[in-house]
Every structure is written in C-alpha cells, then in structure tokens.
DNA sequence: TAGGGCTACTTCCATC
DNA sequence: GATGGAAGTAGCCCTA
C-alpha cells in the first residue's frame, strides 16, 4: 500500500471514530436527561419503579401484554398461588 | 383526594410519561445513527468488530485514567495523607 | 512499624483476600447453576421471563405485592389504559 | 391438554421453582459469608473500601489478560492471519 | 442462539 | 435511623 493510500485510510478511520464518539456522547446526554425526568417525577411523589413499568407497558404491544399476563396467571395457578 | 387534586396528578403523570417517551425516541434515533455509521464504515472496507473494539478501548483508556486517580486518592486517604 | 508487624498485617491481608476470592468463586458457581436451571426450564417449554416473574413474586411479601399492583392499577387508570 | 399432561407440567414447574429457590438461598448464604469476612477485616483494622478495590483490581487484571489475547486474535483475524 | 454490551435494579456504606 | 450516593450484580437486547 502506498503512503497516500494509507493516509486516506487513516483519515477515514479517524473520521468514523470521531463521528461515533460524538453520537455516543449525545446518546449519553439523552440518557442522563431521562434519568433527570425520573428523578423529578420521584420528587413530585411518583414511584419510579411503577412509572418505568407504565412506560414499558405502553411500549409493548397490547396483545403481547395480555399474553404475558395470561401465561403468568397460568403459572401462578399451577403453583396454587391464585384462588 | 379531591377531583381537582386527582386531575393535577393525572396531568403530571401524563406529562412525565410524554417527556420520557419523547426522550427515548430521540435516543433511539441516535442509536440508529450510530448503527448507520458502522454500516458506512463497513461499506468502506473497515472491520466493524475491530472498529467497535477500538472505540471501546478508547473509552476504557479514558475511564482508566480517572480510575487510577481514584485509587491513588483512596490509598492516600487510607494512609491518612489526605484531609 | 516493625518488620514483624508489617509481615503480620500482610499475612492477614493475604488471608482475607483469599477467603473473599474463594467465596466469590463459589457464588459465581451458584449463579451459573441458576442460569442452567432456567435454561433447562426453557428447554422443557417454559417461558423464562415469566418464570423469573414467578420467582420474584414469591419472594415479595404478599402485602407489598398487592400494594405495588394497586399503585400500578392507579397509574394505568389515570392514563386511561384500563377498561 | 389432558389432566395428566397438565399435572406433569405442574410438577415440572414446581420442581424448577424449588430448585431455583434452593440455589438462591445458597447464594444468599455465600453473600452473607462474604459480608462477614469484610466485617472481620474491618475489625482487624483494614479499610473495607480499599480492600474491595484490591479485590476488584485483581479481578480486572485477570480479565485484562484474557482481553488482551482476544484483541490480538481479533486483529490477526482482521488482517487475515488466522483461519 | 450464543455472547457481549448496555441498562437497570439492588445493596451497601457514609453522612446527617 | 433514614436518606442519598456509589458500586456491584443481574437482566435485557441486539448483533453476529
């Protein structure tokens, strides 16, 4: 490989690394923002764990959720933990 | 709880949920962007797995510097050499 | 500190480190065993996620469980996600 | 599903749950033992925080050796020097 | 489907 | 004794 070609490859690599690291920083910022919102909600008296559950339920497809609950009921019944 | 109070709580909850969901969307966008950059790098001939490793090593180096300082502080404290 | 005293301290430290590392190995073995059981259950057709949920529910105090569910219901109602 | 089949499933589920719960008890015992050792070390005059750090550094060193080999393999592969 | 990285939960320690 | 913060652990998801 010629020096010129090597240099091009190096510059490209450098560029990719920088772009990725930049994006990962942004991602971290957002993650921190989310954490802040949860903290704020907690300060207002909401239960973080339950709030997380709400978010996750809304993300889940409604059908899938019902199915999960149905399976859970089934297992609990099998264990005699439900009336 | 009065109806008015309940309504306030509902509005707050709704607001928190919306803010979180908005931020998670943004986060997903960034994640997708990162994926795109890796794909582009692959198209240019770079090995994604190695590229990931490079990124992770650079992150580790940064962390490790902080870590080293933390250890030093810890030992100095343990030896009663810090206030 | 005399050499003898230092040596005692070193031996003690060494001993503590060894005892802890030994215990942590045992702990890891158990963790792996647990993972194996889940894998086996999966192979028999059980849904791991639900199985985990069952285990965790059984661990929770019954009262606490009801309370958590009550809070969740409350939130879901507030968001109009129930009936 | 026939009653007999259901019963088999129930027995299996029960068995899995019991095995997991048993193992988690053992795991908790070990965790408590570890806590005891730290407490004992503290009683002998050692700084728990520093002790934890020592343990974690020793673990890291071990991991890092493996990591270094993994990186080497990765690079060799990327350069087409491994099959 | 297995492995690794990321995220989240829990636990522990220190402070008030 | 409680609360907040940090660290270690475990679960989930995504990629290969």
Cα radius of gyration of chain A in angstroms: 24 Å
Largest sheet of chain A at a glance?
none
Total number of domains of chain A:
2
Low-pLDDT windows of residues of chain A = none
Q: Bin the helical content of chain A.
A: over 70%
- Total DSSP E strands of chain A: 0
Largest interface: A-B, 25 and 25 residues
The number of helical segments of chain A is 3
Structural class of chain A: mainly alpha
Multimeric organization: homotetramer
Write down the overall geometry of chain A: elongated
The end-to-end span of chain A amounts to 75 Å
Provide the β-strand percentage band of chain A.
under 5%
Mean pLDDT of chain A: 89
Secondary-structure element sequence of chain A?
HHH
Please explain how this structure is put together.
The structure is a homotetramer of 83-residue chains. Chain A is built from 3 helices and no strands. Chain A is mostly helical. Chain A folds into 2 domains: 1-45; 47-83. Chain A starts with a helix and ends in a 5-residue tail after the last helix. The model of chain A has no long low-confidence stretch (mean pLDDT 89). The interface between C and D is medium-sized, with 25 and 25 residues. The structure holds a DNA duplex (16 and 16 nucleotides). Chains A, B, C, D: Keywords: Coiled coil.
């Amino acid at each position: 490989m010629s020096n010129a070609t090597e240099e091009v490859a190096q510059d490209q690599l450098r560029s990719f690394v920088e772009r990725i690291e930049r994006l990962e920083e942004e991602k971290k910022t957002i993650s921190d923002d989310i954490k802040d919102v949860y903290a704020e909600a907690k300060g207002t008296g909401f239960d973080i764990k339950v709030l997380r559950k709400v978010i996750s339920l809304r993300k889940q497809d409604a059908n899938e959720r019902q199915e999960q609950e149905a399976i859970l009921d089934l297992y609990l019944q099998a264990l005699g933990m439900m009336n």
